[in-house]
Amino acid sequence: MSCYSFATLRKSPALLSLTATERHVTLIWKVGVMITAEKPTRTPRHIQTERGCVTICGPVEGADILRYQMDEGLCAFRLPKEQQEALAEIARLPEGQVILALHDEQIIGYVTFHRPEEFERWAHDQVPGMLELGAIETSKRWRGLHIGRHLLEVAFGEGALEPYVIIATEYYWHWDLKGAGLSVWEYQKFLESLFNRVGLRRVGTDEPDILAHPANMLMARVGRLVPQESVLLFEESLYQNRWMF
Ligand SMILES: CC(C)(COP(=O)(O)OP(=O)(O)OC[C@H]1O[C@@H](n2cnc3c(N)ncnc32)[C@H](O)[C@@H]1OP(=O)(O)O)[C@@H](O)C(=O)NCCC(=O)NCCS
């Protein structure tokens, strides 16, 4: 079923549970109706930039990710080739999604989503229906041309992420402060406002890695199709060391 069909059902209080396999999201409704959706493919977006036409599309299959060239300016987290392999791995994960920005068969940007890692407090078993925005990157050569903004808009568009609580754990040691020429606080502000555009908001937590530096942030967005039970579990998961206060 397409993501548009979700929209017609989104106000129903009858959602009982949400589970997912590699290719499908399954919503079980209290009324006994079961609805299955594929990892929803977004409508590709073509944008004109001063450096040429860029297409934003996805989720892209792992094998297809490996067929493209990787722009050498995609090196914020790993060497470009290693990052390309990491992207292909994420695409193969259950519920893993990789949205790409492409120019002339070359990957110039991406945003990824995957289930929270098992070692994190937001591991899938604890809060069902949760996805982590793992990374967003635009090639150094293509920054400031709104590629990042379009990547997020396409990823969050068409209701595709409404069944999920999306989190983004932002640690300042991952940020390209030097490349951006920004202070840690300026970078924090710029990322927060970029993520705000698609409804991700900063939330409080006592998660130790987030607390490790005041610039670190946890950002979250609760989709309109997330069952109330999952919202409560998520809210409970934010603070687990209440005895400290
Ligand atoms: C974060 C990142 C993906 C943004 O990509 P981008 O394609 O350059 O972003 P955009 O051009 O869409 O800019 C988005 C907004 O941020 C602003 N912005 C972009 N670069 C900026 C900078 N260096 N300083 C201040 N503002 C900046 C833009 O003006 C734009 O705002 P607007 O829409 O109001 O005009 C890119 O900087 C990057 O790859 N950084 C390294 C990896 C990283 O830090 N990822 C985030 C943590 S996972």
Automatic annotation (TrEMBL):
Alphabetic keyword roster: Transferase
Pfam families listed in its UniProt record: Acetyltransf_1
Domain of life: Bacteria
Ranges where the N-acetyltransferase domain occurs: 33-224
Tagged with keyword Transferase: yes
PROSITE patterns noted in UniProt: GNAT
Protein name: GNAT family N-acetyltransferase
GO biological-process terms attached to the record: acetoin catabolic process
The keyword Transit peptide is annotated on this UniProt entry: no
Lineage, broadest ranks: Bacteria, Bacillati, Bacillota, Clostridia, Eubacteriales
One GO MF term attached to the UniProt entry: acyltransferase activity, transferring groups other than amino-acyl groups
